[in-house]
């Protein structure tokens, strides 16, 4: 893992870095103070790359400007953020969508702040722009919770896979992780661990791979 770049007190756009928050999935995370007064947790690489320049206020100001000049729906419906917001609302409110049974049909809702006339602008203000085109909206930390600012993040496919309800969790020596993470630590494939579990307890599986790989 590369050494952490110290960006404490540095300024990126409207953001001033005020506190180091630790590592988030191998990336450093920082608490930033925006010029508008809001605080937001942001990955270091998003700051140094220039992909995040505000808490979200810059994006909403731009969206409002577009709304006044050109019409928000006609311009923003082409952005990845608008498409993500619209798809989120549809699967939670429209029984005719193919994903309804996994979302609205299960009682999952979109918070009132993200609905209605200013719903998209509020969503953009809270979430900011996507760090990359590969990021999608993810309910976290409560994967069974609603879509709201304190339970959502832009996540990579790997991050979303880690939060799936279908993940198999295994515990050994006080450490509880999903099967995929154990496979990485034990230097093998998840399918190999699954086959071993059919004939021996997980403690024996761990012992076997530790001896094999001298972990």
Notes on the protein architecture:
- There is one protein chain.
- The longest helix has 14 residues, at 80-93.
- Helix 2 runs antiparallel to helix 5 and helix 7 crosses helix 8.
- Strands 1-2-3-4 form a four-stranded antiparallel beta sheet. The chain has a two-stranded antiparallel sheet with strand order 5-6. Strands 7-8 form a two-stranded antiparallel ribbon.
- The radius of gyration is 21 Å and the shape is flat.
- It has helices spanning 44-48, 57-69, 72-76, 80-93, 119-127, 157-162, 179-186, 190-197, 202-213; strands at 11-12, 15-24, 27-34, 39-43, 136-139, 152-155, 169-172, 175-178.
- The two termini are 18 Å apart.
- Residues 68-74 have low confidence and may be disordered.
- The chain has 215 residues and is of the alpha+beta class.
- It has three domains: 1-55, no CATH class; 57-162, no CATH class; 169-213, no CATH class.
